[in-house]
Each structure stands twice: as structure tokens, then as C-alpha cells.
């Protein structure tokens, strides 16, 4: 498998917040593997913490095992999509089995968002309302679509996004990993451009930090990812810190490996062809 660390810089931070007794978020990131995972657990005392950690560990183990079994030609997009779905389904069964076998964990579950960068682009799988954003230039787009009661109301035209922000039902999700034997996984593929900055986050960040603030922070601090993450977490705590807060940042510094003739370009020509974050045509 190609090493993505020369093209991808990653940083992750998680914080308990100001009101919770412990942190039920879990994160994983590995620039070399081109993989980031974030989960926000729920359940009784400590159960959410168990669910999120188990889900993240299960996804990472499954994907690494799948990569190890296919050491030849790079996987094609349909195979990568199927692999991500299978990884989340594997995590779902692991969490569900743990919840079923231990009364203290009964009913636990977790959101989950998985970002996998490969030669053919970014592959995303998610369940729940943890999010993945992309900053391209100065435009921030939410790549994931919340699986939540409020998002369903917005989609049906029953409430506006502004009304949703004021609602008392912001934490009601309609899908979660581990609450049943089956899980519905949303998965999709996206083109990647040099200069993109990606952010995975739990709702402790997205609920309390305005999008405009996120754009300002990521734009101003994109060359210092630790500072950007710390500043965003502090902004969430300044807003009350009502929930655990987690963020993973991934900056695309160079063309991802495995792209044929583009890999052999000298640095100056590579940068010229990718100026303004645009991909050159094949």
C-alpha cells in the first residue's frame, strides 16, 4: 500500500468539555495509512466510552486486515466502498455483542465517521451526526449528512436550519452503531484537490461553534493544525462546553500517491498544475 504521509498531514485532539464527567468520544488517525475515524458514544455510565472505543478499534482492525490481504494492485472504488460498509458493519456487530453480553453496557451505541484517502479520492462512511467537512479555498462544505431527527425535519421542509439550531432536540439521532444487529451505513466518494483541508468532528464542536468561526479558524491557522484544533475546542468550551469535543484535521499537501504520470512530475510543475486547488485533467 502506498505511504500517504508525504501528501497528507493529520492532527487530532479530543476534550471532555466542561460539564461531562468523562469523555465518550474516540478518535484515530494515521497519515501513513490515509485513515481517520471519529466516534461519539452514548449509553449509561462509561458505556458510551466503551462503544466509541470499540467501534473505532474494530473499523481500524478490519480495514488494516483487508489491506494486508490485498497487497497487489490498488483497490478500485467499488471495492473500497464495499470494504468501508463491511468495516462499519463489523464494528456494529462488535458493539452490539458487547452490549448484549454485559448488562452495564445494554443499550450503548455510537456515531461513527470514517475517512479513507486513496489514489482514487476520498471515501467516507458514516452513521449518526458526527460530521466531516471540507475547506476548499475559503468555502466550507459539510460532506456528511446528519442522521438525526432534526435533519429529517429540515429535509422534509418542516423546519429551517435556523429553527433547528434553536431546537431542544439537537441530539436525537436516527441511526447509531451497535444498537441493533444491523446498521444502515451511508458511504460515498469525493474528488480530492491539493490544498483541501478536511475536518472530522463530534457534535460537541459542530453544535456550539458557528460555521463562520470554523472557516475563520481553519483559514487563518491551516499551517498550524495543532493550534487550529486547540482553538476550535476552546471556542466550544467558551460556548459552554456542554458535551465532549473532538476534532481531526487532515491537510492535503501534495497529490495523493498512485496517480500515474502525475507522481513523477517535478515539484514546481506539480504545484503549477495544482494551483488554486484544481485537479488537472487526465
TrEMBL record:
This is PPM-type phosphatase domain-containing protein. It comes from the Bacteria. The lineage of its organism: Bacteria, Pseudomonadati, Pseudomonadota, Betaproteobacteria, Neisseriales. Signal peptide: none annotated. Pfam families: PP2C_2 (PF13672). CDD domains: PP2Cc. Residues 4-252 form the PPM-type phosphatase domain.
